[in-house]
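$ ./design --mode recover --in tokens.txt
reading tokens...
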């Protein structure tokens, strides 16, 4: 099914990678971080991303001992909810 969806019109428009099957949650998290790094986006947009999604993502990264994502030096940690500010590493 994964290969079929990736070959679809939607898959071709998105570079052939719409779905990605991984062997474990840790592998899935590593794959997600790699894809986010290749996007190199300045802003990520999502519904309730700062109040829920990032918190859950960072918790799962910590649980599986996956290296936390590095934010650019211009990132302002005061904009992040306090309960997970300590989990993010900032580059120097």
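writing sequence...
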């Amino acid at each position: 099914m994964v290969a079929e969806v990736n070959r679809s019109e939607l898959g071709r428009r998105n570079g052939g990678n719409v779905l990605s099957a991984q062997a474990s949650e840790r592998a899935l998290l590593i794959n997600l971080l790699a894809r986010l790094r290749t996007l190199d986006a300045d802003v990520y947009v999502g519904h309730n991303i700062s109040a829920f999604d990032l918190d859950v993502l960072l918790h799962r990264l910590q649980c599986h001992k996956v290296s936390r994502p590095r934010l650019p030096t211009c990132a302002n940690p005061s904009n992040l909810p306090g309960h997970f500010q300590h989990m993010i590493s900032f580059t120097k």
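exit 0
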